[in-house]
Amino acid sequence: MTTRFEVPADHPAFPGHFPGRPILPGVVLLDAVLQAAGLGQAHLLRAKFIAPVLPGDAVEISLAPRAGGRVGFTCVSGGRTVLSGELACAPAP
Length: 93
Known about the structure:
Blueprint: E1 2-6, H1 26-37, E2 42-49, E3 58-66, E4 70-77, E5 80-89
Antiparallel strand pairs: 1-3, 2-5, 3-4, 4-5
């Protein structure tokens, strides 16, 4: 499954992160992955941030189901991978 979103230039995470060179905080990108996967909660097994996501960038999130309730993900922006990793579905409370 693949989904796409655009990071608005006026996203509230940009001010202060970082002054003069705004980049999208990793936690915002990981939240977009969770939303795309439809998971309210999950365990982050691994994540590798490879390149920054800038104001106005479009990000394509690709999800790949894996064995054992795991989900692999890759985020691509501007033709380059910006994040990759794997989630495990959180156990029911």
